[in-house]
Structures are given as structure tokens and as C-alpha cells.
Amino acid sequence: MSTPPPAPESRNTSPDISREAAGDAPPDPRPGNGDTTDPDLLARVLLSRVVEPGDETAGRWLRERGAAHVAAHLELGGAPLPGASDKRWAGLLARARRATPEDDLATARDAGVRFVRPGDLEWPAQLDDLADARPVGLWVRGTPSLRMWALRSVAVVGARACTEYGAHMATTLAAQLAERGWVVVSGGAYGVDGAAHRGALAAGGATVAVLACGVDRPYPRGHTALLTRIARQGLVIGELPPGEHPTPSRFILRNRVIAALTRGTVVVEAAHRSGALVTARAAARLGRHTMGVPGPATSALSAGVHELLRRDAVLVSDAADIVELVGDMGELAPERHGPVLPRDLLDPETAQILAALPARSTATADDIAREARTTPDDAVGKLYELRSLGFVERHGNVWKLTHQAMTSGRPRPHPV
User: Fold this and answer.
1) DSSP strand pairing (183-186 vs 153-157)
2) I need a surface site. Which of 343, 352, 376, 397 has the fewest CB within 10 A?
3) Of the candidates 83, 106, 88, 105, which has an alpha carbon nearest to the alpha carbon of residue 50?
């Protein structure tokens, strides 16, 4: 396959994305989109128009017989192949009669789109994990190398009708991931998908939109400008040939590509029947990391995420949490803790004496020692130490907490 021209220099390529990933990949030794004499290329382009995405029966035909044989059998109107009913086979034959792979390649070339197939240098090998549900090929719009970008990628998906919180979290997570050199993959839809793409672009990072229609046909229409920008700075990919429209089943089947392409899937907001959960479940079946961003317990749009978290998904709140799961060894999230208070710096014995003082009254050293289960001499020594630190004050033979000690909170007693 021939290599597309180098991408114009822009700020979207992060330091962790190689020159090859930015579009400077070495030439593919296989014939490219312009070679209409390559039977495997023409066969797969034809099949991308004839066979629906994720058709495992057709995938088995390809595995057992090869793309050229299956395409020729369809074009010649042969007998149904194993697993196809007469009705279904008639539909496939009708599609095959109308398919013109040379025209599809010419249309794609004019739109700046290329066709990537299994075995090509640019083919992401992780898609092979889909077995017979593997795409026949992928139509790719944009100059970077899909294979290289997919090696360090994370899917961020969620509800179309997301809340302001969901949009904020998707944007923030995507921007943080992009700043760390990760490619953000999503579906180009309204809501969380669009917010994730915009977050990555705003951070000058890399993003990939996986569509359920032809990549020359922006969908949804309201995202035409966004998808055009993604194609200019990143990649827009899909299984369907130029001009094909989306259907509900194609959206669902598209999600398996998002799951297989990436190292892990993060669900930001999703109701119980959300398509984003399909992506997460596909990721789990493929052995990818599945992550969820929690929302309010009362939010129906977070109910699906919470159900994921109750099962096998991992709770994440920022990019550091995500990268700790999907990244290389040593990419650990920072330890989380609240602010350090002065009392946190006390040794256990001193903290025990401080905890033994009454909150609103005074006490003698003997009373404090008895409460702290220590000797009066030890208690006096610790009390003078606490006085020097501003925690307690002495009034004759009794001791009491200072205002500082009461307002900063008292430590819990340490076990004896």
C-alpha cells in the first residue's frame, strides 16, 4: 500500500508520538489503493460494501477460503456458502452485482481516503483479536499511521445526552491523556464522544474518530467541522466504504473496533442501556482494561457506569489513574491524601497524649496519663512537648487544649 503524503506541520503531535506515527511511515511494500490489479485489494474493497461489519459467518469464509475466492464466488452468483440462508445469500448477491471496487477506490482517493487491510504495514494487529468478527478492512482519512497511533491509545466513550459534568470530565480526561502522549479514540458522536475529541485537540494532542458510516460522510452532521478538524490533525476511520450511511446496528458493531483498537476503554457517563457499555463489555471480553468515571448516585446517566464498577471495571478520576492501568511498568498514579496538618507530624505516643485531653475542660497530668494508659512522668514530658508546639497550655496543675488544637481537629487515639 502506498504511503500518504506527510502531514503538514502542526501542534497535534505529542512528544511521545514517533515520526512514523505522525505520518512519516516507511512505504508499504504491498500494492496500494491505486493498484486496481491487486485481486486481494479489490476483493476486500468489494466485500466491505457487500458484507455488514462484524459478520462472523463471512469472517469464517474469509479465513477458510480467502477474500479473492469469496468475492469471485459472489460476483459469479455461486451457490450459498456454509452458514448462509437462501434469503441472506440472495441479498449478498444483489449487493455484489452493484459493487464497483475500482470506483470506490477512485472516490476514496479523491477524498483523501485510503483502504487499509489485514497484512498491510499500517494494519493494527490488535484488531486480529476480534477473530472472525475482524473488519474486512478499514477506510482511513488522515495522514498519521493508524498502526502506530493505536499502539498507545485509550478509548473515552459515554452518553450522547451527557450532563455538564460528563462533558467536563470527558474533556479533562482527554486533554490530560493527550498531554501525556496518549491517543484518544472515540466515536465522533454528540455528548461525551465529542467532548473527548475536543479535549484532545485543545491540548494539541492526537485523536481518532471511529465512524459507523463512510468516512467521507460526516455524521452527525452537527459534527462536520469537528470531524474535518480531526481528519486534518488526526484520523477518521471506519469499516464502511464511501457514501455508506449509519444504522443502529452499525453503531453497535462499530464499538467492537473501538474496544479492540485501544489498550483500555473509559466510560464517563452511561445509562443502563447505553451503547458505551457495549464498548466496555467488548473491551472486557478482549482482555482490555475497562474503567469507569463515577457520577452522582442519583444520576440515571451514571447508573450504567456504576453497574460496571460493581463488576469488573476500575474506578478512575483522572488521566494518572488511567495511565497506571494501561501504561508501561512504572507509570504509577501519585498517592492520594488530604492536606497534611500539624498534628499529623506528631509521633504516636505524643498524639496519644493529645487525644487524652478533654475537648472543653481541663485535666491534671495524672488524669491525662490514666486516659492515655501511660505513666504520669511520660505524660508530663509529652505535655511540655505539646505546649512548645502550641497544642496545649498549662494553668497551675491542670492542662487544656489551645484554640489551635481544637480548630485543627483532634487526632484519633492510637491503639495501645
Assistant:
1) parallel
2) 397
3) 88
3-class secondary structure, 80: coil
Q: The C-alpha cell of 250 is what? A: 452499525
C-beta separation of 354 from 385 below 8 A: no
pLDDT digits (tens, 9 = 90+) for 112-164: 999 999 999 999 999 999 999 999 999 999 999 999 999 999 999 999 999 99
Interatomic CA distance for residues 389 and 77, integer angstroms: 92
Q: Report residue 327 as a C-alpha cell.
A: 501504561
Q: Which amino acid is located at 174 in the chain? A: A
The cell numbers describing 313, all together, are 471495571
Question: Closest by alpha carbon to 143, among 34, 1, 3, 33?
Answer: 3
Mean pLDDT, residues 370-384: 89
State which H helix or E strand residue 338 sits in. Answer: none
197 DSSP 8-state letter: H
Q: Are 134 and 118 in contact (CB under 8 A)?
A: yes
C-alpha cell at 279: 464498548
Q: Are 268 and 157 in contact (CB under 8 A)?
A: yes
Tell me the pTM: 0.76
At residue 381, the 3 state secondary structure works out as helix
Q: How far is CA 154 from CA 9, 149, 157, in A?
A: 24, 10, 10
> Would you state the cell numbers that stand for residue 280, as one nine-digit string?
466496555
SS3 85: coil
Q: How far apart are CA 392 and CA 379, in angstroms?
A: 12
CA 206, 208, 214, 219 dihedral sign is: negative
- Note the helical H segments in 234-346: 248-261, 275-285, 303-310, 319-326
**pLDDT for residue 353:** 87
Per the CB < 8 A criterion, the answer to whether 267 and 276 are in contact is yes
| Alpha-carbon 218 to chain mean position | 22
Q: How many helices (H) and strands (E) does the chain have?
A: 17, 12
**70-92 pLDDT tens trace:** 999 999 999 999 999 999 999 99
